[in-house]
């Protein structure tokens, strides 16, 4: 029997396919999404969670070949169905908590390695209408033919609590979710106003200056994927790498 790899929020706590650590980190995530005293800033994610539109998967280290293959399979399965779920949908991958301390820089490297590994496993070509150069304002990470906005959360974040989680965690939001939501649209203005207001209350650091609208000539999507605890930039070039051989994925070692 094939193991289940994609879950909705109501299945996780009772599923024998979800490890105990997965249930623990999901409980913390659920508490964040449902907190009313200090609402989580991403209103699309919160509404999506409440409506059961989010999907989840669980994996060990992204530096394990079988684990990253599992992630690629789960993301592919999600992409096949996300349009049937609703506009507030997204896909979350939780990685097993580690019994060691990593620095912010190491988590950042892990994040970009993970995206590169997933890209190497992608069986579909990069979409023709999405630039391949991350410096282009219209660039977005793509998988299985879909442009996807990605957010990374880690256990090391403290000041920027909106990016803190119990384990290394990636959220994938298809660009389709944001169609019609622009800087000039009514819904876009309302979402920005609400999110910024919540960020002021939620985080102990000001909103990052790289948070901009897709397509803005001043915007680079990749700079929003991984935000540190401060607002300083340390990467001048996007670390994401287009196609490498699967052999290199296998060879990537732990720190």
Q: Would you give an account of this structure?
A:
The protein is an alpha+beta fold and 255 residues long. It has one domain. It contains seven helices and six strands; from the N terminus they run E-H-H-E-H-E-H-E-E-E-H-H-H. The protein has helices at residues 20-34, 43-50, 65-81, 104-121, 186-202, 222-225, 246-251; strands at 7-8, 55-59, 91-95, 141-143, 146-153, 169-174. It has a six-stranded mixed sheet, with helices on both faces. It is globular. 30% of the residues are buried. Residues 245-255 have low confidence and may be disordered.
Largest sheet: 6 strands, mixed
Mean pLDDT: 91
Q: What series of H and E elements makes up the topology?
A: EHHEHEHEEEHHH
The spatial strand order of the largest sheet comes to 1-2-3-6-5-4
Count, helices: 7
Described by the principal axes of the CA atoms, the overall outline is globular
Estimated helix fraction: 25-40%
User: What does the radius of gyration come to?
Assistant: 17 Å
Tell me the domain tally.
1
Poorly predicted ranges:
245-255
